[in-house]
Fold this protein.
Amino acid sequence: MTKSKDGQPGKGNGDGKEETAPSTETAAQSQQAKPELNVLGQYIKDLSFESPGAPATLQSPPKNPQLQVSVNVGAAHKSGEAYEVTLNLDAHASGEGGVIYNVELAYSGVFQLKNVPEQMLQPVLLIDCPTLLFPFLRRVIADVTRDGGFPPLMLDPIDFRRLYAQNVARAEGQPSN
């Protein structure tokens, strides 16, 4: 075994050159610099379900109901490395006779972000965090609509990366795909 200049054991690689083991300090610095995302908690911040036409809409459901769904993402710095990300979902079902149901849900999570570079903070908060929250929001919406007497509303997955790119392009005045 060879020794490096600082007296630490080194490793030969067979070509006569020496490879030194990384120092403990260097290993600690590289370990410390790795970005981390931790979920500290998630919760329903606000929930509303209205079925103004019940029980008539349950007894004879309207033909060809129309469903409109919108989702928005918001993020706020709380303290230190903690951020709150909120998914706001509005779903409105209507038929020939009017409103079938309205669901509004604000589903939030508190995330701890360590060693995330400043230029990556917004994409992490508006892409990665909502992606982690979405399956739970989806389950809440399905349960609420089912518990309201209707078939469960099973939302399709949302591509938060594409939505983020579209919003960035829109903000910069570029056409989005």
Remarks:
- Residues 170 and 176 are 7 Å apart (CA to CA).
- The helical segments are 24-32, 56-59, 118-147, 160-171.
- The first strand starts at residue 2 and ends at 3.
- The two ends are 59 Å apart (CA to CA).
